[in-house]
User: Fold these one by one.
Assistant:
Number 1:
Amino acid sequence: MYFYKEKKAKSLVLWGTAPAFSGPSQAGRVLVENRARGMKTVVIDPRFTADASKADVWLPIRPGTDVALGLTWIRYIIANKLYDADFVKRWSNLPFLVNTKTKMIIKGNELFKGADDKTFVVWDKKTNSAKPLPFPYDDNLEPALEGTFTVNGIQCKPGFQLLKERAEPWTLEKGGKECWLNPKSIEKAIKIYTKDTPSSVALGVATDQTPNSAQAAQMSAVLNILMGNFEKPGVMLQRYEDKGVGGVLRTSKLKGFLSEKQLNKRLGSKEHKGMLHWWIAQPTAILDAMTTGKPYKMKAWLERSGNKLGTVANAGAWVKGMSNLELIVHMYMYPTSFSAYADYLLPVTEWLETDFITASFNQMFARQATTHLYETVNEAWIWARIAKRCGELGHENCKRSFVKANTAPESPYFDTYEHQLDEWTSFFGMTWKEYKAKCPFEYIPMNRFRRYYVYKETDPKTGKVKGFNTPTGKVEGYMESLIVLGRTGKPFTTFPQSPASKDYDPLPYYMTPSENPYNSVGKKFPLVMTNGRLPFWHHTTLRNIPYLREIKPYAEIWVNPMDAKKYGVSQGDWVWVESARGKIQAKALVTEGMAKGVVYMERFWNPETLNSATHGWREMNVNVLSKQTAPFNDICGTYTLRGYQVKISKASGAPKGIWQKPEQFEPWMPKVSEPTKTVEL
């Protein structure tokens, strides 16, 4: 379809993402549309993926060092003046003066009478003085990007200068040494990104799974800001007009129903306020409460994902914590390792069994159930039943949550899932029955849905250009909003919160991995572990499908030939993989498509041993090895799922009880031993 196309894309950086492995994505569409047209690509991944095999530059980075590499790119771009100076000056907040003591941007009304809330202060090179810069710009001024200035006795620097100072130590040589990369290859990659424009950075989940996660996102944003890669033909960062559809197609959080007292009980939310964006708690804080009873005793766990023991860091520690709970409920399509520890199973429908309203670009579609297996129900209905019963038992907010007048503008709970569908489709003035009969249909013309340079369009309410949806109206390379978030919880909290123990940094910074080849842990465990998806699986699902297991019956560990030789491992050997937290097995795939000093495993669990003492998660689960302890990301609380240290050694054979040959496979549904109870719905 024509609206997938970005024909003017000249280069694409795949940073910790592998579209060929992970399925449809925006980056994947850009690749398909433009690679044959000569678009250049850079792949940053320790694995020689299918995407890397076609890349102009492959940077096999040491896991956990992405921000160091990003700062190296930023330094090179600034030092060689490869950035889009006009965009940076006009449409970013990097020219704004920052009080170096408070780290806050100086507001126009602090120095100049009559300045509005979108007037900030720049150093004007024409008059050699501080001047107010009204939104969106003043062509009579020439804002300085670099320098140190004194304004009313206050030392100030432009955000750009502070960014330059932050990146200054990261030469090509230093970045190459830290990231285990050839400096010349880094330079070649940067030149592709900056000279073959329009360009984009596609940042993958790999950078989310370290304590440096939020800073990686900042780093990526800064690179796009420096190059002006926003809302122009050929770039991925676009803004679409959806007439509010995006706000309709989701289950409500009903944030306003949570009291201030209950909000402040959300574990880890004081220190890691970025989690409030998703309305979640910090994993290790949850584990600590389960284990120690502090700051309060946890009594129950209602789990609605697949196999949590395949996704949480240091899975063994969680099993110990779970033993202190009074109730565990697992809500899923079929039993997994987590189910073995549950008191109750609530069987839910798979997506092919579920009706749903969905949008794709400017068109609406009805996803309709194609089958219905076993005694399952839609998950949304289960949550509604729980809320309904709690209301009947006297919980006032649960009663109120079924009344639309109480929940507006969010949706209420409904007595049936069909009523929920009718609520969603009422946005279009239809019932679900009418909606699915009409689908597919355009809800907005393409020329209104997809357009470029939205930030330059005139806002009819103000008569000024729209700019961006940020406090300054500009893209924000200097993220003062993070300081505000850490101190107050705004804009994600429903009640003001007390400050975190330290301010969040408004600029990206690098954290050396706490386990690395150069410290005492690395001496005992010399290899760096990473993980990621393969095209056969989605997260921890589908391991119980015999036909897929014929393709990939066991977990592999990818090892560079030099490392394999050093540690006595040959192609196809069963090996032990051990970290400071545990020990598992995998089968060796010896390949030059793995960076030296790094190993890779995909998340894996074994349904065939579900009823054994291992419950299927101990044999080959890479997250037996990962690290759930500090350091955490200051903003989001993320921990170390990648970039920790392991060692390998040859094993005498395969783990007991696992399938190894295709002829062993039989279609089956694993059974769960007592005392688990299945609830009849």
Number 2:
Amino acid sequence: MLTTAHAANPLSTIAEQSGFKKTGRYEEVEKLCLSFQKNYPKEVRCMEFGRTPENRPMLALLVTRSGLFTPAQLVEKQLPVTLIQGGIHAGEIDGKDAGFLAIRDILENKAASHALDKQALLFVPVFNIDGHERFGAWNRPNQRGPEEMGWRTTAQNFNLNRDYVKADSPEMQAMLKLINTWDPLAIIDLHVTNGAKFEHDISIQVEPVNSGDTLLREAGKTLRDNVIADLAKQGSLPHAFYMSFVQEDDPMSGFADSVPTPRFSSGYPVLRNRFGMLVETHSWKEYATRVRITRNTVISVLEQMASNGEQWLKAAKAADQRAMQLAGQALPLTYRTTEKAREIDFRGYAYTRSMSDISGALMTRYDESKPQIWKVKLRDEIVTDAQVILPKGGYLIPAAYSKAVAEKLQQHGILFRTIHADLSAVTTEQFMTSTAALQAKSFEGRQAMKLQGKWQSQQQSLRKGALFIPIAQPKARLVAGLFEPQAPDALVNWGWFNGAFERKEYMEAYVAEDVAREQMASDPQLKATFEKKIAADPEFAKSPFARLDFFAQRHSSWDQRYQVYPVLRLDFVPK
């Protein structure tokens, strides 16, 4: 129950005042942000860092006891910044109320009173603000409380936790600007998971642990393990993997750990040589329980940063220096989980599985009155999958694409420069596309594409205005993640260059007929190849278009730019 002290406290939340039955609307965030600054003027600044599509202010609280309130001051004193965000999925709103509670407890010296002496906290109570204001009682039907909550996606229907690399949404562009300005050592993203019913109440996943800079992984593992240990001491049942079954709705299928791709909050910081933490409370726990556990997580993270932040910041800066030496080196782009498994004891509930007369599928039903230990398999061996040898110089973007790409590079804080002179007959690498497969449906507002092929050496001439992006920079991993077609969230895979893969010129059939006869008459080997393909490929043989196109592709009128990925690699640094 709410105490009189809480009722009188101007920094108490609607969640507290309602006994954690409710959560406040965004106007509460605006009021609390200013109230914290008013009540703790030496420790708190309330900052607006952007506007949503519906023109709501995007607010962050800068909280520190260091007396340093600018990025330059923090860099000079070598103090880390921790960015903690709530409500990227605004129905999963534990982080908003838990963050305010944790900050107040620290400032009132009720918990971790010295945690902010040598670090700065950037707290974004709600990232997806327009989605937060799409309030409703059943926006999260698989979640126990609060009574009403926001919506998963933005007013433009973007899922912000798929947008870190492509950064299509105004909200993400504002967040990236905040990240570029303050360079947080760790980004902590507070969520509520979906899934089955079981006793475990939270998962903590951190990278780099299985990916990213090899030497930085030990620090990531320490951060993860120490937070898990802190939570366990306080009665939680945490795990270090996302607690979603390998096969949906089947507990005995077990679990598989994985590496998040950089479209996600916990995968993106790794490419910047920083820490990303995904916090997932369990949706079937009551809201009061989830807020308490999330508050404990925030406190633990800040205590870990207070104890280790100076050392970890040096480690991250050292990783920046190593990234600048990656030119010409092998770089993993994707990771996979092997089939190797180990048995674990997992605290679930007794359950039955029976055929449903509604769905016609086998359905699982849990009895929460009967805790039960499940012995299940966990696959958590993660290894490198695709990797690439990076160019020795960097990437070159032709002038025709330079404006749009430059804007994206600026959003990510990536170093680049414009080439102010024509480049004649320079040796480059061009990606020779063997297949370019479009995804059948749009995803996150884009028609995604997947290329297959390989880089090959070619001489190119380019007009001035091309962009050069050097590999020799701290964000080398992010550069490769944007431009290597094998990278899961490369711009080309998000449909950025789809126009280059659209055929715009055709040879009419009556012309192609004459061209085909001329080509076969002058080239018997071509005639033999054509006839062999007819005999071996029934689909080709019965398609008039394919048969004529066989010759059109060998004619001088064929578009040599068709299906050419408009990004080049250089093994030198142009002047």
Number 3:
Amino acid sequence: MSVPRPNPLLSDRDVDFQLYEVLDTAALCALPAFQEHSRDTFGLLLDSTRRFAREVLAPTYRPMDTSPPVFEHGRVRVHPAMRSLYANMVDLGLLTATRPPDVGGQQLPLTVHAVSSAYLMAANLSAYGYLGLTLGAAHLLEVFGTPWLREQFMAPLYRGEWTGTMALTEPQAGSSLADVKTRATPAPEGGYRLQGSKIFISGGDQDFTDNIVHLTLARIDGAEGGTRGVSLFAVPARRPEGGKLVPNDVQVAGVIHKIGWRGLPSLVLNFGEADDCHGWLVGQPGRGLACMFQMMNEARIMVGLNGVATASVAYQESLGYARERPQGRPAGIRDTARAQAPIIEHADVRRMLLRQKAIVEGGLALLLATSTQADLANHAPDEAARQRAHLLLDLLTPIAKTFPAEKGFESNALALQIHGGYGYSSEYLPEAWLRDQKLNSIHEGTTGIQGLDLLGRKAVAGGGAALQALDEEVRATTARARVAGVEPAWSDALEDALQQATSLTLELGARGMAGEVDSMLRHSADFLELFSVVAVAWRWLAQAAAAKEALGRNAAGDARFYEGKLAAAQYWFAVEVPRVPLLAHLCRTGEDSYARMHPDGF
């Protein structure tokens, strides 16, 4: 049986480095929206979430993983710890931390909120999932809801009295939202009556709050086919009627038994079996997806953070284990009278730990840079700056969602490998985190969908304006790195890699404009991989620059920390960046082995 070892979840030193030495997050306080804040107020939120995550939330992870929700008598009963956990998370203020005061918020930067949330995700991602989904639902109603919807549904969500979900997927449609069949019929008394089924609805039922609001896609009777005929509705599990809540004909039809995220139920929901499911239109008819993309994009950032957090907690666990676990002796030592060495002294273990570090800290850097663009997109002082930030946010979102999930799974597998035979056992936690991580590459659009989105929409949008903005950001980083004394070859390699990515994008975009859509998109997954390598290299170069600057200030007490940053940056440029030409070659030549493979050939 494993011996409990305090797990920091994320490295506080790395988080502070990323926020204040790499990004200068405190500079956001110069924006009017954040002028009431400072590094001190940021620290208050960080300190409270760190303490709660480590002392309260993390100990509940294993019990919730081993005792998943139960479906009984038509309702879902979740782990009893969730009642107090949810109330405690609400008390931390994370539901409204980034929202304006008029809805009860503190208007903190999303960048600070993101990293604070990452501690909770690392501690118990299922428990945090309820909060993250509720925040997304409430924010959607805040932006698109009528005053009545904001009062009736948004307010109790933000107060933590109810929870929220996004009810998009249907059994026959999957990710193809153009095939949504749930019907919405105008009701004589106002609003709509809904009928249909949804599947894979995370948090779709629970027993620790009085109500759940499902943000639901449906098609109004007579609407056109395809995505243009899809509208968005607020559908509560219990509707307000006569001053009280009454059942709203939303039935749980089944529970999906997942390999990971076991504390957050994934459900099949039926609406309107008794023709008494009431829903209220959110936004304009036929504009449901346009509204829903706000919540979906926020959820994609959340999934990316989950990927980083899940990889981080496993990395911290394997690092602690490697420092403590004695086994064997250094190469060349055969004297068995010598004490065994901790396995961290073995080169291959350090190889695996360094790859984890490069993925985890590179992924966190990418998510924080993306979150900073979200802060600027919403709050920069002029329209041009906001528009530029929106372009970068759109470009980075599919990368920030996918890289931590895909490479995070690899990182989690390395954590299990470092534990050896113990990693293969359920008595140790790496196997559970590995199960959790796999779902992140599926949640909120699979990796394949993210690749299509990046190449087919985001990278070519505005005639390449987003790529131009990214090029400006990268050149600012390489200039900083050169001044700081970072290895010049790294800056050269990053600029060359981005140039290759840009040229490839223009070439593939031209194919699409010429009607050669299959040729353009055939290797969209490789295109996404290529851009992930480049984006994380950009963030590692920024970390290397900050580390060099600190060493130049004679930060002797922290020298090992900064040297570790430089070693991880070296690793990324030596091992990952050289893959860019191969990935570009696959995209450019349209290598067709799987494309021409006949289904019967498998």
Number 4:
Amino acid sequence: MKFRGWLACAWLVSGLFGAPSPALSADAGALYKTHCAACHGENRLGGIGPALLPENLERLRRPEALKVILEGRVATQMQGFGDRLTREEAQQLAELIYTDVRPAPEWGETLIRQSQIVSPEAKNLPAKPGPGLKGADPLNLFIVVETGDHHVSVLDGDKFERLYRFPSRYALHGGPKFSPDGRFVYFASRDGWITKFDIYNLTVVAEIRAGLNTRNAAVSADGKWVMVANYLPHSLVLLDAENLDLVKIIPTLNAAGDKTSRVSAVYDAAPRKSFVAALKDVPEAWEISYDPNAEPVAEGLVHDYQYKEGAFKPGQFNPKRTLLKDYLDDFYFTQDYAFILGSSRSASKGQVIYLDGRKKIADLDLPGMPHLGSGITWQWKDPSGKERTVMASPNLNEGLITVIDLKTYENIKQIKTLGPGFFLRSHENSRYAFTDSMMSKENRHILQVIDKQKLEVVAQIRAEPGQTLAHVEFTRDGRYALASLWEMDGALIVIDAETLKEIKRIPAKKPVGKYNVWNKITRSEGTSH
């Protein structure tokens, strides 16, 4: 079965997407359809933008929601509509999104299982690179997500030639994940579809709809499991990686059991044999082991930990909670995966969380709105010649890069940039790190090049004013960097990572991200994990 045919098999359930309450203003419904539905879904269940339902808006007060509608929201694709809507019209929309959708949307075990599509031919394909790769190094391929027309490209990282291009699900999340050997790549779409693709044989293996509005997915280091983080329903969904069979739905209830939460993100913590998830609407971080020999998890009253007397659950696939005082909208692992560095939109400081101790151990001095999920590490020599491991993060609200000492968690330097940025990328073989200013109206066409030892901007790479130039990923050896010209008629721009000269342009339809197989499966220090 070809991928295009699979797109026509999208799962539809009669009555799932209900109409708004009859008490709502017809004008509000019309306004929503005109201005909001394209991003947030016809029934407010989410699309490119998040679901607009009361249970997803608990952290956004109604006056703030009105302000977002009129002025937009920093560090998102949400534009302001103050030039198209009167204040009264915006107020109608603000009231609408805090009303329930009836009937309430559901997506549970039965519907998830029924949505699964498995290719019967895929499991018989050879476990070696096929002719479609034309002899390219399978570990130096790039997987390119092109959201302009919802396609994915497979790119030869040596010849910089497109080997294959296929249609994807709607609005893929920018960060696909790979199996440990680099043969398979897993995609998550904003509307909940998880797709497993065989890179060696250039074919889709399986698909399943794990939610209605999905944040991201993670693949375990042993290649056996896929964990899906959902905004709607409020859940984590565990899949068997082979055919994406449903294994378990984990409702994201807080410790008290009286509130549910969206999931900010879930990532694999390879050395720990676990997934780590942050909850967006309750201040908790979860660690969920996939190790069959994991220690039992204590939930509730315990009489004796040594003899496991009390309320214990099996250690595998049950969350261990870290209770916090603030939310985690974003987080980053230290190199040994013993700690996570987290931040929230509402806090003035970040926090360092010790996973084994299940507690916060330090604050981080992080101005603005750091994008820790895009942080990178490297070895830096201080003025005395001492080598230190540092982490650097871009900022979604201010023009700066924060450099942090990972031993003391103190700031080493704030590197000024041309505007708020989303991505920071490098490679262990490169002396440079690249960052964008894509949140800036004036300077989003400029990439800035940072010398990792000098800790300063030393060069710029420019597109045409008004365009967006962002998201760099290096080749396997670090010799070249590929940047995205983030336009409908955009391109992948190949840059010599030493001379910083442009080598080649490969046309692409809004290439929001590109991911080198080797860098991802080896967890290169210069890219996100």
